[in-house]
Amino acid sequence: MDERQQGTRRETVAPRGTAARGEPxxxxxTVRRLADWLAEGSTQPPEMQRVLQCLKLGxxxxxxxxxxxxxxxxxxxxxxxHTWDDVADELCDVMITAMxxxxxxxxxxxxxxxxxxxxxxxxxxxxLPEPPGR
Length: 134
Prior knowledge:
There is one protein chain. The protein has one domain (18-123). Helix content is 59%, strand content 7%. The chain has helices at 26-40, 46-71, 84-105, 109-124; strands at residues 2-6, 9-13. The protein has a two-stranded antiparallel sheet. The longest helix is centred in the middle third of the chain and has 26 residues, at 46-71. The relative contact order is 0.10.
């Protein structure tokens, strides 16, 4: 990773394409940078930014619904206006929006996500072993 000077703030930047390759932590670093970028452009106080980011999830979920309806051609006025690739893109937007929200509401979002995913997996996939020390 390299460091770039930006104004008076130093930021660590993952090499281009790192997040896309799935290197550990790269996605969360990218999400943190997105959250910082959004915060810098906002006129709202941090607490309101957190609230608005959570509400943004509903908007993005609506775009998934619109894309599914379009992929199925169920809007008589629009017909087949979307593809399943469009649905996938909208689902990714939901995921990114949720990740940014998690960055804004939790001090360790990767740990929070991993712990919650493990809890859900243990509940519905009982063959997964209990982690050590629990």
